[in-house]
Amino acid sequence: MFFDKWLTAGVGILAFAGGFTAANLIGDLRLKEVQNSHLAAMTEAQKQNEQEIRRREEAAQAAVDTLLEKLSAADRRNRDLSDDAVRLREQLKHSGGRAVSATAGDCAGACEKRLARCSSLLGEGVELLSEGSGICERIAVRKDAIRDIRK
Predict the structure, then answer these.
(1) Distance CA 147, CA 151 (A)
(2) Is the dihedral of CA 21, 27, 30, 35 positive or negative?
(3) How many angstroms separate the most distant Cα atoms in the chain?
(4) Which of 45, 57, 68, 94 reaches 20 to 30 Å from 105, CA-CA?
(5) Residues 51, 53, 59, CA angle at the centre, nearest 5°?
(6) For residue 64, what are the CA distances in angstroms to 34, 49, 52, 58, 122?
């Protein structure tokens, strides 16, 4: 009878220890599973963010290329107009008419200033696009982390 009480107590202690160990192992497995799913979600979100950034950079580069082509065409037109103004001034001089001042028809200076301003604004736009892309990426990562925490 004395031995039976000790045996029952020992079996109870072993059952408690075994249950505790099993529960601990199950908890560790669930924790690993959650960590792996979070890691997979973060990896997927990062991959999607990188693809979005690449897409936006390509779109921005295409826009920059288009604008540079337009600026180049405007510069060519500006030079042509300036040459035409010089030619017309010379024709006027030689035709016996009153000479036109050199600065009156010189639109090249004004166009160069406008072209420089456009180039400056274009560079600023590219910087802002890059900064906005970084902000979007940080917000997406934080949003995903908060969503995962709330689950």
Answers:
(1) 6
(2) negative
(3) 140
(4) 68
(5) 105
(6) 44, 22, 18, 10, 7
